[in-house]
Structures are given as C-alpha cells and as structure tokens.
Amino acid sequence: MGRGYLTKEMKILVTGGAGFIGSSFVRCFMEKRQNPVVTLDSLTYAGNMANLEAVLGLPRHTFVKGDICDPSAVDFAMKGVGAVVHFAAETHVDRSIDDSGIFLRTNVVGTGVLLDAARRHNVKKFVHVSTDEVYGAVLEGYSTEGGHLHPNSPYSASKAASDLLALSYHATYGLPVVVTRCSNNFGPYQFPEKLIPLFISNALEDKPLPVYGDGLYVRDWIYVDDHSRAVDRVLWDGRAGEVYNIGGTKDKANLEITDFILNKLGKPASLKKHVQDRPGHDRRYAMDSSKIEKELGWRAECNFEEALAQTIEWYRSNQGWWRTIKSGEYRNYYEKFFAGRLAGSSAGSVN
Ligand code: NAD
Ligand code: TYD
C-alpha cells in the first residue's frame, strides 16, 4: 500500500491517455501493475487511438471518449475510480500564442471539473501532471519546487493556474493532490509539431528544419518512459499537497539536437533554416530533481544520446504513423504557420 491508500485492485483514471505522454504512461503502467485503467480522452488533434494500440485489447483497459470540461462525461469516467492521473491538456506553446482561449478552457476549467469530480468520488490520489515551463526562463542554476512561478507563454500560464488550483483543493478540501513538473519529453508517438519529432520527420522528408532565432535556447530533455516511471512513483508514494520536479539528465541547445538528428539520418546541414523567433521565448529551462530522487528513489535512467538515437530510428521505421498526421488536417495549419515564420522579421523577445 502506498501513501494515499492506493491498492493494486483500485481502478485508475488516466486523462489524456491517447496523447504522447499519457499513452506512454498507460503502456508502462499496465505492463508493470495489475490495476484496471480507464483512459478518458476527447481525441483532439493531438489524441490518437493508434498511440494506445498496445493496450486496447486488454480486458483491464477501458477507453472513454469524453471532454474533461464536461462534468457528466467526467462523472461517468470516474465511477468506481480510486486514483486519477491527469495528463489531458492543450500543450503546444506556438498554438497558445495564436489562440489562448482553448488553453484556458482545457487546462484551467477542465482541471477544475476533474478536481470537483474527484472530491465527489472520494478519490485517494490525484496526480496533476505539469511542466517546468511554469518556472519561466532559468538563466542560471536550477528550478526547485519552492521557486517562484514566472510563466511567459499562455500555455505555461494556463498550466501554472491549474497547478495552483489543484494545490488549493488539497489545502481547502483535503483532496490528496500531488503536482509533478517535468522537463521537455521526447520519444515515440510525439505529435510532429514539437521540436524533436518535427525535425526528424522533416529531415526524413528532406524539408527545412525551422530553427527559431539563434537556436541557442536550452531545454532539459527527458525520455518519455522515464517521465512515466516518475509519475508511477508519485502516484503510489508521493505526499499529498507536495510538488515534485522531474528532470532529465541533459541540458541541450536546440542547435545541438538539430545537428544530432541531421547526422544520424545522414542529411545535409543545409536543411537547417533559421526562422523568426517565438515571441516570449524562454532562453533556458533547467530542473533540480533532487527531491523526487531522495524521497521516492526515482532518477532518469535513459542515456540521452542512446534514447534520442532510438527515437530517431522509431520515426524512421514508423513513417505511416506521422505521415498520416502530416498529410491530414494538420497540414494546412502547419503550412500556414511555417510560411508566417519564414516571412516574419526577427521580432520576438527573449526571456
Ligand atoms: P499531447 O498534446 O500529446 O496530448 C494531450 C492529450 O490530451 C491528447 O490525447 C488530447 O486528445 C487530450 N485532450 C486535450 N484536451 C482534452 C479535453 N478537453 N478532454 C479530454 N482530453 C483532452 O500532450 P503531452 O505532450 O502528452 O502532454 C501531456 C501532459 O504532460 C500535459 O499536461 C502537459 O502539460 C504535460 N507535460 C508535457 C511535457 C512535454 O514535453 N510534452 C513536459 C512536461 C509536462
Ligand atoms: P517545443 O518542442 O515546442 O517545446 P517547448 O516550447 O515546450 O520547450 O520547443 C522546444 C524548443 O525548440 C524551444 O526552444 C522552441 C524550439 N523550436 C524550434 O526552434 N523550432 C520549431 O519548429 C519548434 C517546434 C521548436
């Protein structure tokens, strides 16, 4: 039995389980644990049933198509559930700059609907999955859980708001909420609008790799299954009312990632194209994960270079997965967005 009184018979609700990290969590969790799992996902552009292929036939797994902002769908999915792991969100910074409304709705209102339902259903643990982006740019040193929140994009501001809302439900109602804040993930099944899958798939298509600004922005990269293992540790043993940072082991500049991908695929450096910067672009994220390491015994296990090489190989051998996405509805959106970046001046501030 873990802190928060979870048992191995308890049904676990995973929101956003058809997305990139949620589907990794469902796969990893179901491989390791015996608990029944309900996945609740509204299948936005980022949700994909193909991501859940490995678990769809399992009798212990149920998929519910529903919106976390819809109280009756949430009530239905939460029946008989002992714990919630909440991944569902709008997640792409560039989209939040174009239109913040859906980010406020899903990330803030949707989280509120889930928290209210979790109270009604008396759940024993509520893990709210968040991001290092809530700390804002960290020019030196590392973010710790007690650090100030200084989000700079509508995406990270909506995540910070939902983190605080979740923690307030612990303080006010005693709901056993735990918040995790993880750094940039990479791995299979990541929607090809994020840096790594976009650059790998563009390189495979001999298309330009759009590097924002000078490309010297730094992120702390973590392999997605390492993140999923950390969330599993927090689900069982994380202390209610606490925040846990989850970091990778590698701070890397975007240009280093770009060169690694081009080299691995044997593609020319001429595919690199510096384009208009992202407004409000955070210069660096860096995480101090010592709390989860000391308290819960978790640490990132994957070697960055090996995991990135395996990820590149996954996108090379699973081209059907991303080509279907890139040739569908997403294509028009992205072509328009990319043309805007190419045409843009060097405007855009750095934090
Ligand atoms: P993703 O965009 O790949 O997937 C999001 C999933 O949520 C999709 O399946 C989508 O259909 C679903 N969803 C969106 N709105 C919904 C709604 N209203 N109702 C039900 N389902 C809905 O995202 P991801 O990269 O897997 O991120 C998952 C979580 O992890 C997010 O909360 C994100 O903030 C957090 N996070 C992501 C990263 C990263 O590097 N990607 C890092 C740290 C934290
Ligand atoms: P992204 O994958 O969007 O994650 P986040 O903004 O949440 O960190 O971007 C990672 C970094 O890569 C970030 O510094 C922005 C940069 N980037 C590019 O240079 N070009 C691109 O086309 C994208 C999508 C991102």
CATH superfamily: NAD(P)-binding Rossmann-like Domain
Please tell me the total number of domains: 1
Distance between the termini: 44 Å
Enumerate the strands of the largest sheet in spatial order, edge to edge or round the barrel.
3-2-1-4-5-6-10
The total count of strands amounts to: 12
In the predicted model, the low-confidence regions spanning at least 5 consecutive residues are none
Which fold name corresponds to the CATH topology?
Rossmann fold
Cα Rg: 19 Å
- What is the CATH architecture descriptor? 3-Layer(aba) Sandwich
How would you name the oligomeric state of the polypeptide chains in this document? single chain
Number of helices: 13
> How big a fraction of the residues is strand?
15-25%
Q: What class, by secondary structure content?
A: alpha/beta
Walkthrough of the structure:
- By secondary structure, the protein is an alpha/beta fold.
- The chain has a single domain, classed as 3-Layer(aba) Sandwich (Rossmann fold), CATH 3.40.50.
- 43% of the residues lie in helices and 17% in strands.
- It is built from 13 helices and 12 strands.
- Strands 3-2-1-4-5-6-10 form a 7-stranded parallel sheet, with helices on both faces. Strands 7-9-11 form a 3-stranded mixed sheet. Strands 8-12 form a two-stranded parallel sheet.
- β1, α1 and β2 form a beta-alpha-beta unit.
- α11 packs across α12.
- The longest helix has 20 residues.
- The chain is globular, with a radius of gyration of 19 Å.
- The termini are far apart.
- The model has no long low-confidence stretch (mean pLDDT 95).
- The protein binds nicotinamide-adenine-dinucleotide and thymidine-5'-diphosphate.
- The site of nicotinamide-adenine-dinucleotide (NAD) has 30 residues, from α1, α5, β5 and β7.
